[in-house]
Write a structure and sequence with these properties.
2 copies of one chain form a homodimer. By secondary structure, chain A is an alpha/beta fold. Chain A has 8 helices and 6 strands. The N and C termini of chain A lie far apart (69 Å).
């Protein structure tokens, strides 16, 4: 005897999530079966509703339910500042700090010629026209600290600087609360390189 | 700016799963948003369908879509053998070994007076009538190897033995593929206790 069919289907469905293997999927399935029907329906509905209502803002590329998004409409935000990130979730991460009050530009990836991700796919032409048309004074590049992210940052910097705009890269260094001893060499060299006078 | 409302609701929904915190929930949410609509709908539907179609077999207590369950209906299974387990998922785990061909009895818990789980709540009277009515010759107790599971096993053994039925407990010892060095003291003493002649 194997699983009853609907249980098998549920476990298979849950297995599609990243990082969830058959054992965890089975645990989640049994959890669902032990919950009241309304709760299961509400989780299922939240999934479909999110998929139906959320899309990417045509201006900045972040996730939104309205067009343009709340960030692009917010008149209190500094329109002279654009922070460039790779993914929509990066916007949420940065917003959580409460420290940034400019606008965003989500690339939905990083330059990667091998994967066919060139400047057009990353909406870079749209970034450049946003910069030109909106009197932007600084572009903060917050792509990931890896080969693709750095290459993308360099590419953007090369094209934006001639427009007379300041281009900055977020700082790399020791994570706060971390331990010098456990920092990898690359992070440590970047931390030395980026040292600031106290 | 916080999450768009539907995204927030989705992340909250996913957080209800055991072992899934806000960070993992956010990762899963973004995964869902990146999948085609049909796939999201199919996962959502699998959840509700499982909840709607699965119930517990009135005879053995395992998860099923039909009454009585496929295990109880299967004429090739040895009706003289009943394996007692705590949870419906334990049936699946044992079935996976392919080594057991008798029937099951799921208690849906273990004796725990503090939690109000007495013999009645665990369907123990039903187990005893199954044993009497079906000419059962052996009851294998596969409750968990902890205080509640052991107490439940002892309770069942005390009541079933007088019926002239053999009562056995699954073996405890070193997990296969494990390392003696890493076994805890209790497992090791149980392994010694349960030693068998070679």
């Amino acid at each position: 005897m194997s699983y009853p069919q609907t249980l098998e289907k549920l476990v298979e469905s849950l297995c599609r999530f990243p990082g969830i293997g058959p054992k965890t999927a089975q645990r989640l399935a049994f959890f669902l079966l032990a919950r009241p029907r309304e709760e299961v329906v509400s989780i299922a509905r939240a999934m479909v509703e999110a998929k139906d209502k959320l899309f990417f803002c045509s201006n900045c590329g972040c996730l939104t339910e309205i067009e343009p998004c709340a960030l692009c409409r917010d008149s209190r935000r500094d329109r002279g500042l654009i922070c460039v990130v790779q993914e929509p979730r990066d916007v949420l991460v940065l917003e959580r700090t409460g420290q940034y009050h400019g606008l965003y530009h989500v690339l939905h990836g990083a330059l990667s010629p091998l994967d066919g991700l060139g400047p057009e796919e990353l909406r870079l032409p749209h970034l450049f026209s946003r910069i030109k048309e909106n009197n932007v004074r600084e572009v903060i590049i917050a792509t990931n600290p890896n080969v693709e992210g750095d290459a993308t940052a360099a590419f953007i910097a090369r094209l934006v600087k001639p427009l007379g705009v300041t281009v900055t890269r977020i700082a790399f260094g020791l994570p706060v609360g971390g331990d010098l001893e456990y920092a990898d060499d690359l992070t440590l060299s970047r931390a030395l390189e980026g040292r600031r006078e106290m």
